[in-house]
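re: that chain from earlier
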Amino acid sequence: MSRVQNKIPTCRNCGAENSFQVDRTTAAGDLTCTVCGTVQEENPIVSEVQFGESSSGAATVQGSMVGSDQARAGYGSRQNAMESREQTLLNGKRKIQKLAIVLKIQPHIADAAGGWFNLALTQNFVQGRRSQNVLATCLYIACRKERTHHMLIDFSSRLQISVYSLGATFLKMVKALTITNLPLADPSLFIQNFVESLNFGDKSKKIARDACKLAQRMSNDWIHEGRRPAGIAGACVLLAARMNNIRRTHSEIVNVAHVAPETLQRRLNEFKKTASGSLTVKEFRQSKAPAPSLPPSYYKNRAIEEKLRKQIEKKELALRRYIELANKHQLIPIELPDILKPKEERERLEKERQEEEKKKKEREDQIEKAEQEKVDAVLQSVLMNHDLTEELLTSELQRIINRQKQNLEGLCYQTPAEKAKAEDFKKQVELDKPRNLVANLPSSKEILDKVNSDPLLNSSDEDEETRDVELTGEALEQKIRIWTGLNYDYIIEQEKKRLKEEADILTGNTSGTRKKRRIGKSEKNPTDEFGQGIESFGLLDAVNQVGEDGESISAADSARKMISKKPFSKKINYDTLHDLFTHN
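^ sequence. v structure.
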C-alpha cells in the first residue's frame, strides 16, 4: 500500500475542505469557496487539448505546448521564434546526442549530460568558452557518474581538441557547479593506454593483466582512495613490467603517466607495506587476495606518534639527568627532598656540604698563593740589580695606588662625551700597536731573499706548505689529463685561433677586422669645425680634390690613394689595377 496521500484542497479563509466550485457562468472560470465565497484561483491555465475548426473546415489544435524548461509558449513552428537561451540549450543537447552516438554512450547518460549542460547554462559557465569543451565536459561528468570506461583522451581525440584544455574546463566546471561525490576514475582505464605507449610487444596483454590485478589489490588496501588514478596506474605498470622481467625506468613511466617521480615512488613504498607487497611473483599470481591492510594514513600517523614519543622520552631523560646533576652538585636549591628526609640525615648532608666548601676554599687559597710566589720571585730578580730602598718602593707604590684611584673616580663621573673620547683614544692605541712592533719584524729584503726566483717549483723550495702541495709523478700527469679533458673545447678553439694568426702572417693578411672606434667629445679634431663649415657651403668635395702641392688630383690618383688605405686582399690583382691606371 502506498504511503503517499493526495493533498486535500482547503480554503485559506475559512478552512473548509473540498468546498470549491468553478464559476461556469463567466469566461474566466474562477474557483471560489462555496462556504465563505473567497476566490481561490483566477484565470486558471487549462492543461488540456482543444480542437477547433478553420474557415475551410479543417480541424486545428487550439493552444500551444509549454515545456517545463521554457519561459513562454513559442510562436509558430519556426525555430527563430524561440529565445536565444532555448536555442542554445536545444543545440547543445542535439550535439551531445551526436557525440554520445559516436562514442557509443547510452542514451540515458546523454540525457544526464544535457541536464548538466542546462545547469552550466544557468550558471553562465558557457559564456567565454568554446561550446565543444563545455559539451564534452558535461558528457564526461555524466560518464564518471555512471562509472563508464570513457576518458578525457577519448573526447579529445574525437573532437580534435587539446586534452589539457579539456581537463582545465572539467576542473573549472566541477568547482563552479559544486559537483560533489564524483566517483574516482578506475586506474585500469589508464593501464591499457600506458601499456600501449610503453611498447611491451608480445607481453602487453600479460603485463596489463598483472597491472589490473595490482590495481585491485591497491584498491583493497585503501591506496586508491584520495589519490590520482594516473599515479596508481603508473606504479602498477612499473611493478607488472618487473614481474615479467622487463626493465622500465621511473623516467619512462613518468613521461607516460605525467606524474612526479616522488609520487610514483610514494605509491611503491605504500604498496610495499601491505600484505600483498611481501608476496613473491608466483604467490601473488596464484593466491587469492589476502586480508586488506590498514590505510597508509594509519601507518603515517603511527610513525608521527612514534617520533613524538621518542622526542618526549629524550626530553624526559634529559630532565631526569639534570635533576640528578642538580642534586649531586647543588646547582639549584631543592628544599622539598631535604624536608622529607630525617633530621639526622639532613645534618649529615649539611656537614658534608660545609666540608666540601671548606676544601674548595683551601684549594683556591693554595692556587692564589702559588701565583703570588711566582710574582714575588720575578720582583726579587728585578730588584737585585737595582739600588732601591724600601722607602722609595713604598712611596712609588703609594703613588701608583693613588693614580689608579683617581682614574677609577674619574671613570665614575665621566660625561658621555668624555667617555666616547676615551674609547676613541683606546681604539687609536690598538691601531698603533703594529707600528710599534715594526722594529722587531724582518725587513722586506730578508723575506724576498728567502723566496725562490725560479718560476717552476721544485724539491729545493724552502716553503714547506708549497712543497707539500706540489704534485709530482703520476699525480701530476693525472691532474694534467683531467684539466685537459675539462677544457678540451677551449684548448682546441685557442689552437685554431693561433694557427689562423700564423697563416695570416704568412699570407700577409695581418689587418684583421678592426672595430670602429667611436670618437668622444674630447678626441674630436679641431679642424672638424672647419670641415663642417665648408661642407655647409658645398666646398668639401672641392677641397678633397686638391693634393699636397696644391694641384688637382686625377681620378687615377684618387683611386690609388683609396686602395692604399685598404688592407691587403689576396682576391685582388694589383698588377692589373696598376696597368689600368697607367692606360688611363
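Confidence is low (pLDDT under 50) at residues 533-543.
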